[in-house]
Amino acid sequence: MDPNFTVERGTTASRRFAVLGGVLVVALATLPFWGDTASMRLIAEMATYLALAQLWNLLAGYAGLVSVGQQAFVGLGGYALFVMCGWYGIHPLLAIPLAGIVSAALSLPIAFIVFRLRGAQFAVGTWVVAEICQLLIALMSSLGAGSGQSLTPAIVRTVAASKADRDMIFYWCSLGIALIVLGLVYALLRSRHGLALTAIRDSEQASRSVGVDTFRTKLLTYVVVAFATGGVGALIFLQKLRISPAAGFSLNDWTVVVIFMVVIGGIGTIEGPIVGLVIYFVLRQLLADYGSWYLIVMGCVAVFFMLRARDGIWGWIAQRWQLHLFPLRRNFRRGGP
Amino acid sequence: MGIVSIVIQGTLLGGLYALFAVGLSLTFGIMRIINIGHGDLIVLAAFVAMVCVRALGIHPLATLVVVVPVMFGLGYVLQRGLLNRTLGDNILPPLLVTFGLSVIIQNVLLEMFGADTRRLNVGALETSSILLPGGISVGVFPLMTFAVAVLVLGALQLLFFRSDLGRAFRATSDNPVTAGLMGIDNRHLYALAMAIALAVTAVAGVFLAIRSNFDPAVGPDRLIYAFEAIIIGGLGNLWGTLLGAVVLGIAQSAGAAFDPQWQILTGHLAFLVVLVLRPDGLFPRTRD
């Protein structure tokens, strides 16, 4: 490369934000020592949703794989953890990454089938696969059939003897998994694969013409996302201590809500899902007493954004102030380092 | 249950699924969008029929006179006012807007009518059956449903291949830009296509409401059956959609005969098998 140019990735704003983010992470990590149980539970839930939203965004926003069947991997991950802990006596915390591996392994045959469908058909195809997973597990009496199963107290105690300690461990796990997923997505997008993914996002045809192997890139993304989604699912149901086919493979809980966050925040950016996450939780809190009205409002808001502000709230902010907190671009600057 | 009986019951069930699928097939064929809210619109039509029966005291089948025009109008407004704005190269907007619609319709119905399971009562028609030689009894209503599905498909076939409007539809489906240059107003045409799709959906909703229990949450499954019928049959082929629906119906009947819990699962599995072995469906349209 011409020595008169240097490649810059960061911006002033992103460096300032990194410091701010670091402070926030430290503050959240020490929350068990100064916060109450209710806020710990809320932050833990937000952390798992942040992970799911980032993962769906990577699939739909970058790889163009608009899946409405990610609940398949949440449920499979959850069930994998219950089987490993209940049948094979594996430690629950070790079972989380192992559940991710099971989920990734299962995603390969699933991809073999659903990758035959394009675009919108792919979306419905993934949904059918999730339905099949739910129906199959509901037929297995060894997994508790339709009514599901619980983790035995003996298994739960292997995490930690007291409930307070367990809450703390689960909290750190949730925070940890959100940071790992965020780091994973960021690292992936800054790598060569990320460049390929961004190219696919902008134009699949053009990216193919410059030599991007779109099929391999998409498959890799699908499997990585299945791995992480399975791990998140395992952690979610480890915290709930109970799983059933209806809860594990819930379209509303693991996909509709996640899509809402990503669409509102801004699809195809890392910052968008974070903004959407905050908005979703605020909205849920405000409309908590109105039953299914909160879903109706959510639906209307999402439709409005898709029609009027396709890039979401973050897209608007980024365009207006040229703000990138997770810089993915390569900026060239004249002059040596 | 013997094999002959399974095939007959499954074929008749396929008639209902064909009614579910035709609207979805039309919107995909002409606008290239998959309406995720399709199943919920079927359920909406069922509820409109229920309201008509209650308010007017008419026979459930007579509600078609009201439900079909209502859904036709709704389809036109929906496409013209909302969905036309989502069309373009990006697949996300139509997909997510119809997904949002699905969530909205389901929950509005839930708020208005509650989660109770309902059914429209047609008295003797519901239970009457014809006894075929060999001791197989065939329900009159399922038979009627199948006949209506064939009639609807025949009428659409005529519309598409024997009328000026049909030619405009086919032209726009092949190439919207060129069709526009020839003086076709695509926005109006798309709205008409959605209106026709929802008119068929209205028929599907009324027959669903008479044939089985329904509640606000059953829409997504109807969308999935419709989608499976289209993919099994091969995209862009109306008679293929009927055959796909029949294959799905027979698969479900066979599963139900084995164990009622397997009914829906075997339908899904038939879909997967077709997808793996014949990704273009069993009866793909010849390249045109």
Explain what this protein looks like in three dimensions:
- The complex is a heterodimer of chains A (337) and B (288).
- With 337 residues, chain A is mostly helical.
- Chain A is built from 16 helices and four strands.
- Chain A has helices at residues 12-29, 31-34, 37-62, 71-88, 92-114, 119-139, 153-159, 163-190, 192-202, 204-209, 214-240, 245-248, 251-265, 271-286, 293-308, 312-321; strands at 5-8, 149-150, 242-243, 331-334.
- With 288 residues, chain B is mainly α.
- Chain B has one domain (3-116, 140-277): ABC transporter involved in vitamin B12 uptake, BtuC (Orthogonal Bundle).
- Chain B has twelve helices and two strands.
- Chain B has helices spanning 3-31, 38-56, 64-81, 92-113, 124-127, 140-162, 164-174, 176-181, 186-211, 219-233, 238-258, 263-277; strands spanning 129-132, 136-139.
- In chain B, strands 1-2 form a two-stranded antiparallel ribbon.
- In chain B, helix 2 packs parallel to helix 4 (92-113) and helix 11 packs across helix 12 (263-277).
- At the A-B interface, helix 6, helix 13 and helix 15 of A face helix 4, helix 10 and helix 12 of B.
Please describe the topology of this protein:
The complex is a heterodimer of chains A (337) and B (288).
Chain A: E1 5-8, H1 12-29, H2 31-34, H3 37-62, H4 71-88, H5 92-114, H6 119-139, E2 149-150, H7 153-159, H8 163-190, H9 192-202, H10 204-209, H11 214-240, E3 242-243, H12 245-248, H13 251-265, H14 271-286, H15 293-308, H16 312-321, E4 331-334
Helix pairs in contact in A: 3-8, 3-11, 3-13, 3-14, 4-5, 4-6, 4-11, 5-11, 8-9, 8-11, 13-14, 13-16, 14-16
Chain B: H1 3-31, H2 38-56, H3 64-81, H4 92-113, H5 124-127, E1 129-132, E2 136-139, H6 140-162, H7 164-174, H8 176-181, H9 186-211, H10 219-233, H11 238-258, H12 263-277
Antiparallel strand pairs in B: 1-2
Helix pairs in contact in B: 1-6, 1-9, 1-10, 1-11, 2-3, 2-4, 2-9, 2-10, 3-9, 6-7, 10-11, 10-12, 11-12
